[in-house]
Amino acid sequence: MSTLFDEAKIGGLGLANRIVLSPMTRNRADRDGVPTDLMATYYAQRAGAGLIVTEGTQPSAIGQGYVTTPGLHTDAQVAGWRKVTDAVHAEGGRIFIQIMHTGRIGHSSLHGGEPQVAPSPVLAEGQTFTYEGLVDNETPRELTTAEVEQTVAEFVEAARNAIRAGADGVELHGANGYLIQQFLASGSNQRTDKYGGSVANRIRFAVEVATEVAKAIGPERVGLRISPANTFNGISETETEELYPALLREIAPLGLAYLHIVESAGREFTRTLRAQWSGTVILSPNNDGAPTGREHGEQAIADGACDLVAFGRQFLANPDLPARFRAGADLNEADPATFYGGDHRGYTDYPALAV
Ligand SMILES: Cc1cc2nc3c(=O)[nH]c(=O)nc-3n(C[C@H](O)[C@H](O)[C@H](O)COP(=O)(O)O)c2cc1C
Questions:
Q1: How remote is the CA of residue 79 from the centroid of ligand 1, in Å?
Q2: Which of 78, 179, 229, 339 has the most neighbouring CB atoms within 10 Å?
Q3: Catalytic status, residue 350
Q4: How many alpha carbons fall within 13 Å on the CB side of residue 316?
Q5: Domain limits of the chain?
Q6: 292 within ligand 1 shell (Cβ under 6 A)
Q7: What is the pLDDT of residues 202-233, one digit of tens each?
Q8: 339 CB near ligand 1 (under 6 Å)
Q9: What is the DSSP letter of 37?
């Protein structure tokens, strides 16, 4: 049986181990969405991961939902990402950039007064951070059918830009209540065109994005993250047990690099999905809210639930997490106060083990 420290392959890419840096938004790009030198340092510090999946990155200005998140739709952003990928590769790491269109999550003030866009004009209750502070969410504007097709093209362009920036691939963010999951979930998708209504129609956007991005950059460079039954960001999903198997049936023939499951629906459903997916599975295990630790990862692999395990908060606080796991060393604690935004503090100053 494999362990977290065994080598692995995704697509044609060799990975040094099965420990993945979970995608984590850290809001340290500049106001134009350009990745900073500090971000290059942060990711290079974590290059001991078998695979780094970066923070969510907007494919378009309207796809941005939070302050100072990076983008992949301008030349300056591509140049910024190039510094990040070069720094990671110089340390022997592998890096996929997560493409995250936040859909209805966000605020009009982030893009010159233009409202957020979504499958349907359904408000996600709650509040969001803007440059002016915490404000109520707004009702999004419904995308026209032509605009949905245009949005697929934006994912494709962003993926091409990721490759231009030197990334090894992209992860499509279909989880956690952002645009792709807003299409999947009946609560946020009340459309009557080919993108709404039946399960076959609600999965269409995800399938088109995956298909077109795979065509553009090669399926071996594309991963997809999903979070069945997630309720975060006001998501209410119906027919989860029909929806995700239908989605996987459609995308399995593409031969993507991996499927990344956020285990919101529990281990049994993970197993159901895994049985349907002949390729690689990365799992972000459900630990009842506890940060994923070595024991959770080892259990998930022992259960046959996945091939690789994603570590979020523990990797955030321990830049050399794989080395610490190997050594059985103590871990630094993550400080939630510095998760989102700020400077190097709580970002690049978590100490590595003394050697
Ligand atoms: C600060 C922070 C930012 C996050 N940002 C993202 C993100 O941009 N994209 C994403 O798919 N998940 C995001 N997540 C979720 C993580 O990828 C992960 O699924 C979650 O933290 C649970 O894993 P853990 O227990 O190992 O921390 C974020 C989590 C944290 C703590």
A1: 25
A2: 179
A3: no
A4: 23
A5: 8-338
A6: yes
A7: 999 999 999 999 999 999 999 999 999 999 99
A8: yes
A9: H
What is the 8-class DSSP label of residue 283? E
For residue 270, CA distances in Å to 14, 79, 251 come to 25, 38, 17
Question: Ligand 1 atom 5: the closest Cα is on which residue?
Answer: 24
User: Which residue's CA is minimally distant from atom 26 of ligand 1?
Assistant: 312
Residue with tokens 């069945």: 228
Identify the H or E element spanning 159.
helix 145-164
**Residue with CA at minimum distance from ligand 1 atom 23:** 312
Q: What is the pLDDT of residue 191?
A: 98
CATH class of 8-338: alpha beta
55 C-beta closer than 6 A to ligand 1? yes
Residue 53 one-letter amino acid: V
Q: Which of 282, 342, 279, 276 is nearest to 306 (CA)?
A: 282
Model confidence pLDDT, tens digit, residues 122-137: 999 999 999 999 999 9
Query: How much of the chain exceeds pLDDT 90, in percent?
Result: 98
CA–CA separation, 22 and 15 (whole Å) = 15
24 alpha carbon – ligand 1 mean position (Å): 5
- Torsion-angle region of residue 57: left (phi > 0), alpha (psi -120 to 50) or beta? beta
Check: CB of residue 3 under 8 Å from CB of residue 298. yes
Angle at 224 between CA 307 and CA 20, to 5 degrees: 45
Amino acid at 344: H
Catalytic residue among 42, 43, 66, 178: 178
CA of 192 to the centre of ligand 1 (A): 33
Amino acid (1-letter code) at residue 236: S
* Lookup: tokens for 83: 């510094």
Tokens of 55: 């923070």
Closest CA to 69 of 111, 118, 112: 111
Residue 60 CA to its chain's centroid (Å): 16
Q: Residue 54 phi/psi, 5° resolution?
A: -75, 175
**Ligand 1 binding pocket includes 73 (Cβ within 6 Å):** no
In this structure, the residue with its CA closest to atom 11 of ligand 1 is: 23
355: confidence class by pLDDT, cuts 50, 70, 90: low
Pocket perturbation via mutation, ligand 1, pick of 4, 20, 21, 24 by most ligand atoms within 8 A of CB: 24
What amino acid occupies position 292?
T
